[in-house]
Fold these 2 entries.
Entry 1:
Amino acid sequence: QKEVEQNSGPLSVPEGAIASLNCTYSDRGSQSFFWYRQYSGKSPELIMSIYSNGDKEDGRFTAQLNKASQYVSLLIRDSQPSDSATYLCAVSSGSARQLTFGSGTQLTVLP
Amino acid sequence: GAGVSQTPSNKVTEKGKYVELRCDPISGHTALYWYRQSLGQGPEFLIYFQGTGAADDSGLPNDRFFAVRPEGSVSTLKIQRTERGDSAMYLCASSLSGRAAGELFFGEGSRLTVL
């Protein structure tokens, strides 16, 4: 059973702070890693993908991957109230096209 | 249309009834996926189409669930003899076949309620 674990939160940070979201996965064969943002009542939206160890930056977002520790994280710098959402970690393995999602971390950015 | 379109947005049915949920993917996207999301959970994979064929249906929970994509574009998820446990948001997603698995564009979903 492939598992993806996230702290459900809620995680609250003040506006302008760094929000740190964490995810661990059980399948060592996992090769592709994704962060989706889901606003309340809306569908998931891809915000970051990462495929190799290290950091990947895109604007205020940084994804970090450590395959040896089976750990992936998302950092949001200069957090804004509009970042308040549930963040879903998703993993795919090898040639499989299906994603395994975590249950998400609810983030609230306080003005 | 510009995005993935799903109909109906809401469906309320009685236990034992048959339902169909429709998905119209982004034009040109050959890969199409169905996921199911319950409250407080992440999406759960159901089935993946590449073109007209179901390339991976390992996530379908039982034989009451079936999906088709006869012309390689629109897909229909069919649920027979619905049960209360089938109540969930059913999400359709599409992607370009050349893109990495997981770079998905989701529709707004069809919320199914089985009374």
Entry 2:
Amino acid sequence: KQEVTQIPAALSVPEGENLVLNCSFTDSAIYNLQWFRQDPGKGLTSLLLIQSSQREQTSGRLNASLDKSSGRSTLYIAASQPGDSATYLCAAPLYNNNDMRFGAGTRLTVKP
Amino acid sequence: GAVVSQHPSRVICKSGTSVKIECRSLDFQATTMFWYRQFPKQSLMLMATSNEGSKATYEQGVEKDKFLINHASLTLSTLTVTSAHPEDSSFYICSASGRGGLYGYTFGSGTRLTVV
């Protein structure tokens, strides 16, 4: 059974800082790995998807890396803005299992 | 891009009644749909997985007779919370995956259920 852990649980930074969110998973036979953003009381917005054969993906100020052998993914946010404040979730579906297991998320607060 | 529409966004119902939540994939065929539940300040927990035309697979601890899932077409899945109780109050989110999972997973906007 896939276990997904996200560290830290909460993070507060001043505007403009670069930051890293961490995601680890126990079963490396993942099909892909996704990072999501969730605003309070809202659904999820997909940020980045990394196929299992890929090492990283970039979108604007976001960069996600994947190291399957160590069971880790990181989400790097450059030049953080108050609008980045949200909970960030990672999920790692298994190769032969079509469901996703989510981490508990990192609640990010970017202060103006 | 892939879009999943979930309806309603909010619903308040009386204890003992049933509530139906719809999840539609608007521009792709969703061979598999997933239903999640999220309690305040907690992560999403998978409730069940449904494949079009077959019975849903429920996670351990989820009552299949209470949470009825129907995936009658490649674009629609419904979750019915039967005989709802206050402890069923939660945020329910669906997600849909296209063939082969190549498109990743697209989520609905969620449904806030409050049972009074």
